[in-house]
Specification:
75% helix
Length: 96
Protein backbone atom coordinates (compact mmCIF):
# COMPACT_ATOMS: atom_id res chain seq x y z
CA UNK A 1 0.00 0.00 0.00
CA UNK A 2 2.92 2.35 0.68
CA UNK A 3 4.26 1.93 -2.86
CA UNK A 4 0.81 2.64 -4.26
CA UNK A 5 0.58 5.77 -2.11
CA UNK A 6 3.95 6.97 -3.42
CA UNK A 7 2.85 6.41 -7.02
CA UNK A 8 -0.43 8.18 -6.41
CA UNK A 9 1.28 11.09 -4.66
CA UNK A 10 3.67 11.51 -7.58
CA UNK A 11 0.70 11.41 -9.92
CA UNK A 12 -1.08 14.12 -7.92
CA UNK A 13 1.89 16.46 -7.63
CA UNK A 14 3.74 15.70 -10.89
CA UNK A 15 1.05 14.90 -13.44
CA UNK A 16 3.40 15.60 -16.35
CA UNK A 17 5.23 12.33 -15.60
CA UNK A 18 1.99 10.50 -16.27
CA UNK A 19 0.91 12.47 -19.33
CA UNK A 20 0.56 9.26 -21.33
CA UNK A 21 -2.29 8.05 -19.12
CA UNK A 22 -5.88 8.65 -20.10
CA UNK A 23 -8.12 10.91 -18.05
CA UNK A 24 -10.15 7.92 -16.86
CA UNK A 25 -7.05 6.23 -15.47
CA UNK A 26 -6.05 9.51 -13.83
CA UNK A 27 -9.43 9.79 -12.16
CA UNK A 28 -9.14 6.21 -10.90
CA UNK A 29 -5.66 6.89 -9.52
CA UNK A 30 -6.89 10.02 -7.77
CA UNK A 31 -9.85 8.12 -6.31
CA UNK A 32 -7.47 5.44 -5.01
CA UNK A 33 -5.31 8.16 -3.43
CA UNK A 34 -8.35 9.64 -1.67
CA UNK A 35 -9.45 6.21 -0.44
CA UNK A 36 -6.01 5.43 0.97
CA UNK A 37 -5.90 8.80 2.73
CA UNK A 38 -9.38 8.19 4.18
CA UNK A 39 -8.30 4.78 5.46
CA UNK A 40 -5.26 6.35 7.10
CA UNK A 41 -7.42 9.06 8.64
CA UNK A 42 -9.92 6.49 9.93
CA UNK A 43 -7.10 4.50 11.52
CA UNK A 44 -5.71 7.66 13.14
CA UNK A 45 -9.17 8.54 14.50
CA UNK A 46 -9.64 4.99 15.81
CA UNK A 47 -6.32 5.08 17.65
CA UNK A 48 -7.06 8.53 19.06
CA UNK A 49 -10.50 7.42 20.26
CA UNK A 50 -9.01 4.31 21.83
CA UNK A 51 -6.43 6.34 23.75
CA UNK A 52 -9.07 8.84 24.87
CA UNK A 53 -11.31 6.04 26.14
CA UNK A 54 -8.41 4.49 28.06
CA UNK A 55 -7.62 7.88 29.63
CA UNK A 56 -11.26 8.42 30.60
CA UNK A 57 -11.58 4.99 32.22
CA UNK A 58 -8.31 5.44 34.11
CA UNK A 59 -9.46 8.85 35.37
CA UNK A 60 -12.82 7.45 36.44
CA UNK A 61 -11.25 4.58 38.40
CA UNK A 62 -8.62 6.86 39.95
CA UNK A 63 -11.42 9.10 41.29
CA UNK A 64 -13.68 6.30 42.57
CA UNK A 65 -12.47 6.70 46.19
CA UNK A 66 -13.62 10.36 46.11
CA UNK A 67 -17.26 9.45 45.37
CA UNK A 68 -19.55 9.00 48.35
CA UNK A 69 -21.97 6.11 48.45
CA UNK A 70 -25.61 7.00 47.92
CA UNK A 71 -28.05 4.75 49.85
CA UNK A 72 -30.81 5.43 47.29
CA UNK A 73 -28.58 4.15 44.49
CA UNK A 74 -29.12 0.44 45.20
CA UNK A 75 -32.90 0.91 45.35
CA UNK A 76 -32.93 2.86 42.07
CA UNK A 77 -30.73 0.29 40.35
CA UNK A 78 -33.06 -2.52 41.41
CA UNK A 79 -36.07 -0.59 40.03
CA UNK A 80 -34.33 0.08 36.71
CA UNK A 81 -33.19 -3.54 36.40
CA UNK A 82 -36.69 -4.84 37.15
CA UNK A 83 -38.26 -2.46 34.62
CA UNK A 84 -35.67 -3.33 31.96
CA UNK A 85 -36.20 -7.07 32.48
CA UNK A 86 -39.95 -6.64 32.24
CA UNK A 87 -39.66 -4.64 29.02
CA UNK A 88 -37.31 -7.22 27.51
CA UNK A 89 -39.66 -10.04 28.48
CA UNK A 90 -42.72 -8.19 27.20
CA UNK A 91 -44.29 -7.58 30.61
CA UNK A 92 -45.09 -3.86 30.49
CA UNK A 93 -47.34 -3.59 33.53
CA UNK A 94 -44.71 -1.60 35.50
CA UNK A 95 -44.43 2.16 35.34
CA UNK A 96 -40.91 3.48 34.54
Amino acid sequence: MDLMLVILTVYIYLPSLFSYLSVAVGIKLYAMYVIIKCIQLAELLRKSSEHTLVDMVQLLFSRLPQFKEDPKWATNVRKVCAFTCDVLLGNTHHEP
